Amino acid sequence: LEVIRGVEPRVADAIAAELTDQREMLKLIASENYASPAVLLAMGNWLSDKYAEGTVGRRFYAGCRNVDTVEALAAEHARNVFGAAHAYAQPHSGIDANLVAFWAVLSQRVETPGLARAGVRQVNDLTEQDWAQLRAEFGNQRMLGMSLDAGGHLTHGFRPNISGKMFDQRSYGTDPQTGLLDYEALRATAREFRPLIIVAGYSAYPRLVNFRIMREIADEVGATLMVDMAHFAGLVAGKVLTGDFDPVPHANIVTTTTHKSLRGPRGGMVLCDDALAEHVDRGCPMVLGGPLPHVMAAKAVALAEAARPEFGSYAQAVVDNARALAEGLLTRGAKLVTGGTDNHLVLIDVSGYGLTGRQAEAALLDSGIVTNRNSVPQDPNGAWYTSGIRIGTPALTTRGLGAAEMDEIAGLIDTVLSGTTAAAAPKGGLSKAHHVLDAAVADQVAKRASDL
Ligand code: PLP
Question: Which residues does UniProt assign to the signal peptide (predicted)?
Fold first, then answer.
């Protein structure tokens, strides 16, 4: 830090302050974690300075042997940990991994029949006329993804994201009574809509997804099954999600982030079957710039950690802790979407406390508990104010907290939310954004949060 302070002290201060926040507050954001020192150090070094467009052994720059080593190791560990045929470690983030996957599926669908018809093997041999014909044949592609308010992600075909502009999108949701995925409704939509890609995976669904059924539906309608396991990759790596609930044997293509439950550096990754491998490997330069070699080094280190037996115990503890947290909240009368959890996250419907998600998020932050507001299914408050709070256990489990602490944290959350009310907006009238919480309650909870 002193080296940084000598150049720009405000950056050094922000780093130090972030460390204090992460130590003193309870980090309950379901997509965050604490990477190990080995992962952090693998990122902060000279590999950062190297350009290496291309793939292992086929670069557009000279002097890439050390980048080749780390990229090959990241891919090898990923194949081993997840049992995948092929792994691509370059995506800079989860969004990038999804973009690579979309283009890989599109190019596979466009090129394979096109190449065969044109009697050529190389895509570069296609003429402009071939391309025009292929675009006419395969244009206006359709994607079927989980709706945002049921827990899907922006990149699964929603308007503010490029996926919603590239694809003609339709959503599947959850059963309004149970909050659970309704596979038969999904099957009916798929039969009628006939998408090119079915996207499974979520940011805020607290239950398991049966990927065997998803693949069956995709096969029935001739779609490619893509699973975005960004949130639960750590549970797959740790062998907590197996059989029908492990996406890798069932999906044609799987994308992930590496920084959530997987506990690696910020970044993305794509796993796929052999048929898609060559298309995925064109991610750079198709949609990615030069890879981040230092981050690929950290991915290799994180995946080596995930291959150890301790990681399996960690992943199981993440799920056990989420269940304990859910039970602690239910005992205190909280309303949970789907009534509980089977994975690493819990979605509290804070309308039961008379609050919007925005008010609850702010009151919890005042009390040293970091969460994020989130839509609940059919949310009357929309995606900005929301009616939910999403919490998850990957980070606190890394810090070694267990079931007893989860019950206590459920009590702290309930104390804060029960003690919070909606406040007037500056222009008058009750606001969806403002809240009142007694300062003594906030201080008392924050003190306990910091001790934990
Ligand atoms: N996919 C899912 C399911 C996610 O939850 C997220 C992140 O929140 C992403 C993709 C995007 O990841 P990133 O922020 O690394 O682009």
Answer: none
Q: Please confirm whether the linkage preceding 285 is cis (ω < 30° from 0).
A: yes
Question: Whose C-alpha lies nearest to ligand 1, atom 7?
Answer: 94
- 53/20 Cα distance (integer angstroms): 37
Question: What residues form DSSP beta bridges with 253?
Answer: 226, 272
Give pLDDT tens digits for 162-202: 888 888 899 999 999 999 999 999 999 999 999 999 999 99
Q: What is the pLDDT of residues 56-103, one digit of tens each?
A: 999 999 999 999 999 999 999 999 999 999 999 999 999 999 999 999
Is 148 annotated in a binding site? The answer is yes
- 154 appears as a binding residue in the annotation: yes
The sign one gets for the Cα dihedral 149, 151, 156, 160 is positive
**pTM for this prediction:** 0.94
Beta carbons of 29 and 395 less than 8 angstroms apart = yes
Q: Tell me: is residue 234 an annotated ligand-binding position.
A: no
Which of 32, 90, 95, 345 is the pocket-test mutation for ligand 1 (most atoms within 8 Å of CB)?
A: 95
Taking only the tens place, the pLDDT of each residue in 402-416 is 999 999 999 999 999
- d(C-alpha 280, C-alpha 88), whole Å: 7
d(Cα 141, Cα 24) in Å, to the nearest integer?
Answer: 48
> Where does ligand 1 bind, in terms of residues with CB under 6 Å?
31, 93-95, 153, 155, 201, 203, 228, 230-231, 257, 268
pLDDT range class, residue 119, cuts 50, 70, 90: low
- Would you call 5 a catalytic residue per the annotation? no
- Predicted ipTM of the assembly: 0.98
Burial class (CB in 10 A: 0-12, 13-18, 19+), 287: middle
Active site residue 51: yes
Determine contact, residues 358/384, Cβ cutoff 8 Å: yes
